Amino acid sequence: MTGRRRRRGAGRAVLTFLTAFGALAGAALAGAAPAGAVQKGVRVAPGVTYEEFDIKAAKGVTHAHVLKVDLGHPRVRVDLLYPGAVAWRAQVSRMADAQGAVAGVNGDFFNITEAQHPGVEATGASVGPAIAAGRTLKAAVPNGQRFGPALPPGTTTEDVFGVGTDGVARLDRLTLDGSVRTAEAQVPLGGLNQYALPVGSVGAFTSDWGSVSRVRATCGTDTDRTAPCSTDTYEVTIRDGKVVSAADTPGSGPIAAGTTVLVGREAGARQLRKLATG
User: Which residues belong to the signal peptide in this entry (predicted)?
Assistant: First the structure.
């Protein structure tokens, strides 16, 4: 499997993260704080500054938090915080403490509820792609499977921000380009360690996924995450290039290193049924 990245833009040497809580409506936040904002600045560590300010908007006051990171500082490094598995949950503060980070920002939305699919386990997995320390952990779910507010026009769940090996901040788009080769055909992959797979596709799950059930990957559609779970599913476990087990429904439990579980729905399930154990 390979990941294809398309570059959309590069940032300056100072990376700014902003989170806002309150009733912001019709206001754009970029660069410096708006005129009239109540602003405070605190140095968190060399090259890292925290600021907070209030913004008066149409529906009330929004309290904004800004973290500025000087990527050119020799003692500064930015990377992904995650709880050790894609399908798991942990507080940002605890993950930051565990990594010895001076600050952490919640940068995505997550599958933390499954009220629309009673009996299906929520995975805790993020919506978008994830890469940590250069290791690809997961790809993005279809746009319609996203949790959170509507996407801004022209954006997708594949859009990311990150820092390259050259220390430059980037806005980019990460797409999955992979396949599974069998004796008869080459099956394209529609997902990697995702809580939702495209309709009719096959997704790969590795040890990075964790032990949470993979059933959620076959629920909803590309345009409606609340749609029912698929009734046409199939799963195979591959080790050393051979199918060692198969099941009609996705399973759960830890996946051993070097083992890959393929989950198919609709057309993807029919492709996987052609694979024989052994």
Answer: 1-25
DSSP track, 239-260: ETTEEEEEESS---S---TTEE
Helix (H) or strand (E) holding 174: strand 169-177
Q: Which residues pair with 43 in a beta bridge?
A: 49
Q: Give the chain's length.
A: 278
Give the CA dihedral 210, 211, 214, 220, nearest 10 degrees: -70
Output the pTM of the full model: 0.85
pLDDT digits (tens, 9 = 90+) for 244-265: 999 999 999 999 999 999 999 9
Residue 82 DSSP symbol: -
Q: Which is nearest to 70 in space by CA: 131, 30, 12?
A: 12
Place of tokens 């409606």: 224
> Do the beta carbons of residue 267 and residue 218 sit within 8 Å?
no
Longest dimension (CA), the chain: 69
